[in-house]
Amino acid sequence: MGKERITGSEALLRSLINEGVDTIFGYPGGSIMPVFDALYDHRNDFRNVLVRHEQGAVHAAQGYARSSGKVGVSIVTSGPGATNTLTGISDAMLDSTPVVVIAGQVSTGVLGTDAFQEIDFVGITQPITKWSYQIRRPEDIAWAVARAFYIAGSGRPGPVVLDFNKDAQVAMLDYEPAKVDCVRSYIPYPTPSRNAIEEAARLVNESQRPLLLVGQGVELGEAHEELKAFIEKADIPAARTLMGLSALPTDHPLCVGMLGMHGNYGPNFNTNECDLLIAVGMRFSDRVTGKLSTYAKQAKIVHIDIDHAEINKNVTVDVPIVGDCKEVLPLLTALVNKAEHKEWIESFARYNAIEHEKVTVKALNPGSGPLLMGEVARKVSEATANSAILVTDVGQNQMMSARYFKYTKPHSILTSGGLGTMGYGLPAAIGAKIAMPERTVCLFTGDGGMQMNIQELGTIMEQGTAVKIILLNNNYLGNVRQWQELFFNHRYSWTPMLNPDYALIAQGYGIPSRLVVERDELDDAIAEMLAAPGPFLLHVAVMEEANVMPMTPPGASVNEMIFE
Amino acid sequence: MDKKLFTIIIYTENIAGMLNQVTAEFTRRMMNIDTITASSSSVEGVHRYTISLWGEEDSVQKVTKRIEKKVDVLKADYYTDNEIFFQEVALYKLSTPVMLENSEVSRTIRHNNARVMEVNPTYTVVEVTGSTDDILRLYDEFVAQNCMLQFVKSGRVAVPRSAQEVLGEYLFNEDYKRKPVKDVE
Fold it and tell me: CA of A371, closest CA in chain B: separation in Å?
């Protein structure tokens, strides 16, 4: 292809087009003005979603990426524009979400002089990105963008930052598209060890009580079918982490529920009963393991992960398999015997029945009293034929909607698992709906998280993004209140919260809303929300002092869940 | 667990900001680096870091893996002292008038195989290569002889005792074995 003389800003946009980007979540400002000026000529190539705060830009890019499998893109200015993205970048790092954040930077000549809106963005973001790079020369633009997308999207995905100096934005260059598909110091898809796979297969074939843990790695690796083939052949019950909930359909006969602090009793209890634990694309987070010193001590452990640094990080394993689960699982399936573990699988149902009786029945059918989060979540899930994308904020709304939603399709849960970012939900839901317009996107948020990025209602208004917002309002920072009740002697230190009139706020943004207080209105209100052609705010007044149960108390073992 | 002295050898691309990326992994755990030496390696464009620190093997192993995971790090491995050859260099700036008065100083220099780099009426510069213990013992002797003006010691440099050439094999194998970018589904 011939070279063409263009500006650095134009080269950036052409490089983005070259990577297949058609949607940007951006916010203009001083040091990125040349790029936005060039963007004005590319209105047909890109949909730029003008967010209302740069934190929203990154969360929206995350929602876009997680729901579609593509790399999300944010463009912001230097200084405060850049620092406002840090929470989103950190969130993407912990949850392995591929995003590329492009920030303006002051001109090269004034770097280090405390110039207006100058901060050391590369220095700040190095610990929270896969790669952070400053583009100082226009001739580096095409290469840097290509490398950014390659690194963000390959292997274990993650955020990449490009810090783009203003002088490089305006300088002229002879543009030539670039492609990066190899970095010699980076092995995104390690070759799994044949010996390790054979050893793992031997353990599977010897096991009487195997348990498989499904993490987000299965979703990121698009290994849904490979996973099913493996567990179906060897008849292995599978439990999902919060991040991996939609990696295996809820109603799959071998799906035994959710792991974790507020997960299901069966898989948590049986983690300490199984004789073989097979972890696939998950990182043994402390929310999953509870007390490490008593975690699955009786079991042999096989850990399949694409990231070498995850092996033996939290849990020492017997057989590590470093590789892409989409490649590893079929190799394993070929080596394992067809098996049956009927009694073992039934034992999960027995423990889950205890949870059902002590917790779930009351959560879903309380009969009288104030509305509960669980029943709202289950009803919304069923009203969408269990096919919606669930986006959650963080806290009780997150745990209850994750627990009671049902998942039938891949990429159907978007939640801040690692960083636990309040305020993630609303912008992430916008990104998801923009990426997947044909899917219903249901955001469950609380009155706390809603107000952390409430300004993004403006983005919904402007874009007409048909996000269904279910605001579970208990007038508390509910999860912290629950901990205060259980572990801080009922001392509700700054968790009660005075709320605004959400109907008026929604009205101000032109978003239809409905308040539901009574149980008998719920079905009708959900139907109204889902029938609305655009966005809708369903404001549900839920019980103020309800707790998420069951729960593995902090410091307790996975088999020591409490029910009330 | 007991703390031991470990040496981490890291190969990285030679790019700005790399040192910050490496040391940030120690900062995050508040692990204090004892010595650090960074310079070009035998491979063009590749930098070599030698970092020594006291720590528990478990955390040293984890931090080494996290460093190797960084995109522009080619290889990172950790060693105990019996797995490597290592040396440090020290320079001692001594008072020439004191040396002329006290012949013990010259004897100390010869006895320790130190090399005299410069002599002038004011000061003498002496260089020694050896272990930390050797270098510090000599320092103590010069201080006792009251001739010490200035002292500096490098971080350690080290080569593994293993006959395998880690980086050469790494570059050869991985570069050629590397799979193309995964197809987007």
Answer: 42
Structure tokens at A250: 């809820």
Say if A96 falls within a structural domain: yes
The answer to whether the CB atoms of A188 and B182 lie below 8 A apart is yes
Pair A400, A518 in one domain: yes
CATH of domain B86-153: 3.30.70.1150
* A475: CB partners within 8 A, 6+ apart: A447, A496, A497, A498, A499, A544
pTM of the model: 0.95
Total domains in chain A come to 3
Q: How confident is the model at residue B176 (pLDDT cuts 50, 70, 90)?
A: very low
CB-based burial label for B167 (10 Å; 0-12, 13-18, 19+): middle
Which among B20, B181, B185 has CB closest to A123? B20
Maximal C-alpha separation, chain B: 82
Give a yes or no: residue A355 inside a domain: no
| A316 close to B (CB below 8 A) | no
> Measured between beta carbons, which residues in chain A are less than 8 angstroms from residue B65?
308-309, 311, 313
CB contact under 8 A, B185 and A181: no
Please indicate, yes or no, whether residues A436 and A331 belong to a single structural domain of this protein: no
Of A142, A130, A417, the C-alpha closest to A260 is A417
* B89–chain A Cβ distance below 8 A for any pair: no
Say whether A154 and B181 touch across the interface (CB within 8 A): yes
Give the separation between CA A288 and CA A244, rounded to whole angstroms: 12
Query: How remote is the C-alpha of A366 from its chain's centroid?
Result: 30
**CATH class held by domain B4-84+157-162:** alpha beta
- The 10s digit of each residue's pLDDT in B62-97 is 999 999 999 999 999 999 999 999 999 999 999 999
Same domain for A142 and A200, yes or no, is: no
A417 and A304 both lie in a single domain = no
What pLDDT, in 10s, does the model give residues A390-442?
Answer: 999 999 999 999 999 999 999 999 999 999 999 999 999 999 999 999 999 99
Nearest to A126 among B17, B171, B177 (CB): B17
CATH of the domain at A242: 3.40.50.1220
Whether B4-84+157-162 and B86-153 share one fold: the answer is yes
**Token couple for B76:** 């990172």
State which amino acid sits at residue B8.
I
Listed by start position, the domains of chain B span 4-84+157-162, 86-153
User: Could B62 and A309 be called an inter-chain contact, meaning their C-beta atoms sit closer than 8 Å?
Assistant: yes
Scanning every residue of chain B, which has its alpha carbon at the shortest distance from the alpha carbon of A326? B182
| B29/A contact by beta carbon, under 8 A | no
Structural domain containing residue A396: 371-541
- Sheet strands (E) in B20-83: 33-40, 46-55, 73-80
Q: Are A187 and B174 within 8 A, CB to CB?
A: yes
One domain for residues A168 and A235? no
Q: How far is A222 from chain B (nearest CA, A)?
A: 8
Q: Which residue of A has its CA nearest to B182?
A: A154
The pLDDT of residue B167 is: 72
Question: In DSSP terms, which residues pair with A392 in a beta bridge?
Answer: A444
Does any CB of chain A come closer than 8 Å to the CB of residue B115?
no
Tokens representing residue A126 in the block: 């190095």
Across the interface, whether the CB atoms of A185 and B13 are under 8 A apart is answered yes
Nearest residue in chain A measured CA to CA from B60: A313
Min Cα separation A104/chain B (Å): 19
Name the CA radius of gyration of chain B, rounded. 21
Beta-carbon separation of A130 and B175 below 8 A: no
Which CATH number covers residue A377? Answer: 3.40.50.970
| Average pLDDT of chain A, as a whole number | 97
In this predicted model, what pLDDT tens digit does every residue of A321-350 receive, in sequence order? 999 999 999 999 999 999 999 999 999 999
Q: Alpha-carbon distance A95 to A417, whole Å?
A: 7
Q: Is residue A143 part of a domain?
A: yes
Position A436 scores a pLDDT of 98
Where b means 16+ CB within 10 Å and e means fewer, A135-157 reads bbebebbbbbbbbbbbbbbbbbb
Chain A partners within 8 Å of B28 (Cβ) = 127
